[in-house]
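Hi support team,

I'm filing this because I wasn't sure whether my run with phosphoenolpyruvate finished correctly. The job status page said complete, but I'd like someone to confirm that the output block is well-formed before I use it downstream. Pasting the exact inputs I used:
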Amino acid sequence: MTNKLMKMRAQHAIARQSRRHASALVVCEGTGKFVVGGNWKCNGTKDSIDKLCASLNSGEITADVEVICAPPMVYIDRVQSKLNAPYQIAAQNCWVSKGGAFTGEVSAEMLKDANIPWVILGHSERRSLCGETNEFVGLKTKYALDTGVKVVACIGESLAQREAGDTLNVCFAQLKAILDCVTEKDWENIIIAYEPVWAIGTGKVATPDQAQEVHAGVRKWMSENVSPDVASKVRIQYGGSVNAGNCDELAMKPDIDGFLVGGASLDGEAFVKICNSAAHSK
Ligand code: PEP
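And here is everything the job wrote out:
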């Protein structure tokens, strides 16, 4: 081989490598409307819930944001009759199939019948305390969607999994179990909530960079495993100790399309501030 040919080949190889490197850096950012959810969990009394609704109604949502509140099941009707627009309602869970002899459960049909448009599924508390597996969450997601209830699907790693370097693999396995059950079109009605377990209720929020890194990884996975179009449109919320003080900085990250908020969603003023952080979203 002549020197000239060797040099040309080397130049081609470098160009090929740098093109590959450049394409690896291409990230498709989220294009969906910012969406904030409030997960009230198993908290509240009639009295405290009435006060929270009043506080939310008096707060001014000035940003372009979709807001979804998830009260405890027994208070949903009450909250639904009290909260004004733009607040929407979600249940915190529903059964995996048609209702029947499932003591203590609520079916997706019931949610639909009660005009509850959203349900949170796969929250880490249900995964760890109630033994819900990835596959079960996938089946629940499909059943809810087929019944006409939209889904906030939670994923996220434990501290041990993060420390073992398994964060993305854990999230991908959780997503794969959903992907295996749903159609491409179903993703229009799914919000992904990335909630690192170690950040939930601990006051230990992921740094904006830590959250962005996982969100970008999830979006890239969606692009490769569903489609680039779905990946750019699907909304990925961050959840884990979001509060009125840290929301603006997190909202600035390009792949953070909203928040799922636990503790701070019980404080109307703080929650409204978190909703308005949508104004900082890029
Ligand atoms: C949650 O449980 O979904 C959550 C994010 O909780 P917190 O905001 O309290 O960490």
